[in-house]
Design brief:
The protein has about 450 residues and is an alpha+beta fold. The chain is built from twelve helices and 26 strands. It has a seven-stranded mixed sheet with strand order 3-12-13-19-16-15-14, sandwiched between helices. Strands 23-22-24-25-26 form a five-stranded mixed sheet, with helices on both faces. A three-stranded antiparallel sheet has the order 4-11-10. Helix 10 (about 365-380) links the parallel strand 22 (about 355-360) and strand 23. Helix 2 (about 40-60) packs across helix 9 (about 315-325). The longest helix is centred in the N-terminal third of the chain and has 20 residues, at about 40-60. It is globular. It starts with 6 loop residues before the first helix and ends with a helix. Bound molecules: glycyl-adenosine-5'-phosphate.
């Protein structure tokens, strides 16, 4: 059953994203460019943490995966062979009354009659195929011969470089090639904040195997990917695995799972895990006349490898992380009066800033100097934020709202004024429990190494 939508919650999340510098509308001061988003100082850190962790899990921690970084501009022959030039399209309908351009599946049906979801009128054009690829021209000429496309998925450059990478990496099947990068689709209706954008990033793995391993590896990668989401703070209970029915699957795929998440606007796809058979390599082999076969030294067999592809969206996962982390609770203000606290409970691994560092008073040079010493001690290991302005409770709230998991306060005990035994200790506050513990400054790097692992 799909989760109910929560418009109010989503509005609060979008507003927080702008207010605190996670995500801004692209070209905002010019009225905005629909379907494009800019990540601000905190958004870019969150996004990097996600991509780095994916790379660490998928490439660095494995013996059987190598990475690549392909170009965005793509030769049209590549996308003709892959089927994108012919078939990467959505059926599109226009409403003659309100002039809305709609994807055919967005029409509403009342008493068996299709209506425009915007104005409710029924004067609609017949569906026509709309190719989602962005076309551009390379070089000075702007004719048929100079057409290139902005890649609609990162996968194709992996297939096209398969032979080169196989040769240089000397991997044996099964092995994978991973890539993180931008993809572009001229979506008819970008919507739900960053969820459906025209420019977005993907984290894709093409895991090549023998034909008989395909179905088993499809299961394996589905489970690996579910573990990944749990490791970044998205609980299993919020994830749903949809087995894509035969009639909705690409004709060449022998099995596809969609990993879905309960967003505030409903249950939607985060990632696809597909067994694409040998379709892509075979297509490129046919189109180029160059062998993309694998030679098995042991069995002396030569064949085109099959592939299982976990393909995740960076922007969708960032959005899921923010939606999952957003909560409101009650916490006492300076005077002990309860107030609403907005918290982003990011997993510490994903949090843009790991630790806020505060001198209790900004006009006490000793406190300030000590706090800056702590900053210098921790900065080489993690992102920290120094803040000396406002009451300490306000400073905690500001960090809670951006998801900083830890806060360090340098106070008079740190200076040894009350008890010499407490000299060079600080309070370490936990964002979620709001509990504070007293720890020695010299122990901080080791404490964080353990808590941020
Ligand atoms: N190579 C396979 C492929 O591209 P896809 O299901 O079309 O498959 C994979 O895309 C993932 O890319 C999706 O699960 C989603 O996370 C992300 N994605 C696709 N279109 C997107 C869009 N318009 N905006 C944001 N993310 C998108």
């Amino acid at each position: 059953m799909s989760a109910p939508s929560d418009t109010q919650r989503m509005e609060k999340i979008v507003s927080l994203c702008k207010r605190r510098g996670f995500v801004f509308q692209s070209s905002e001061i010019y009225g905005g460019l629909n379907g494009a988003w800019d990540y601000g100082p905190l958004g870019v850190e969150l996004k990097r943490n996600l991509k780095n962790y994916w790379w660490q899990m998928t490439v660095h921690e494995r013996d059987d995966v190598v990475g690549m970084d392909g170009s965005i501009l793509t030769h049209p022959a590549v996308l003709r062979a892959s089927g994108h030039v012919e078939g990467f399209s959505d059926p599109m309908i226009d409403c003659r009354t309100c002039k809305a351009h709609l994807r055919a599946d967005q029409l509403v049906e009342k008493k068996g009659v299709k209506q425009c979801p915007n104005c409710g009128e029924k004067d609609l054009t017949a569906p026509r195929q709309f190719n989602l690829m962005f076309e551009t021209h390379v070089g000075a000429a702007t004719d048929e011969s100079s057409i290139a496309y902005l890649r609609p998925e990162t996968a194709q450059s992996i297939f096209v470089q398969f032979k080169n990478i196989l040769e240089v990496s000397r991997k044996k099947l099964p092995f994978g090639i991973a890539q993180v990068g931008k993809a572009f689709r001229n979506e008819i209706n970008p919507r739900n904040f960053t969820f459906r954008s025209r420019e977005f990033e993907q984290m894709e793995l093409e895991y090549f195997c023998r034909p008989e391993q395909g179905m088993e590896l499809l299961e394996y990668w589905k489970e690996e990917r579910l573990k990944f989401y749990e490791n970044i703070g998205i609980p299993r209970s919020k994830l749903h695995v949809l087995t894509v029915p035969d009639e909705e699957r690409a004709f060449y795929s022998k099995g596809t799972y969609d990993i879905e998440y309960d967003f505030p606007f409903g249950r939607q796809e985060l990632e696809g895990v597909a067994y694409r058979t040998d379709y892509d390599l075979s297509q490129h082999q046919k189109a180029t006349g160059k062998s993309l076969e694998y030679f098995d030294e042991e069995t002396k067999q030569r064949f085109v490898p099959h592939v299982v592809e976990p393909s995740a969206g960076v922007d969708r996962t960032v959005l899921a992380l923010i939606c999952e982390a957003y909560s409101e609770d009650q916490a006492p203000d300076e005077k002990g009066k309860m107030e609403t606290r907005v918290v982003l409970s990011f997993h510490p691994r994903m949090a843009p800033i790991k630790c806020g560092i505060f001198p209790l008073l900004k006009n006490n040079p000793q406190l300030v100097a000590k706090a800056k010493e702590v900053v210098a001690l921790l900065r080489p290991h993690m992102t920290v934020f120094y803040d000396e302005s406002g009451a300490i409770g306000r400073r905690y709230r500001r960090q809670d709202e951006i998801g900083t998991p830890f806060g360090i306060t340098v106070d008079f005990e740190t200076l040894g004024e009350k008890d010499p035994a407490l000299r060079d200790t600080v309070t370490l506050r936990d964002r979620d429990s709001m509990k504070q513990e007293r720890v020695a400054i010299k122990d901080l790097p080791a404490i964080f190494r353990e808590r941020l692992a």
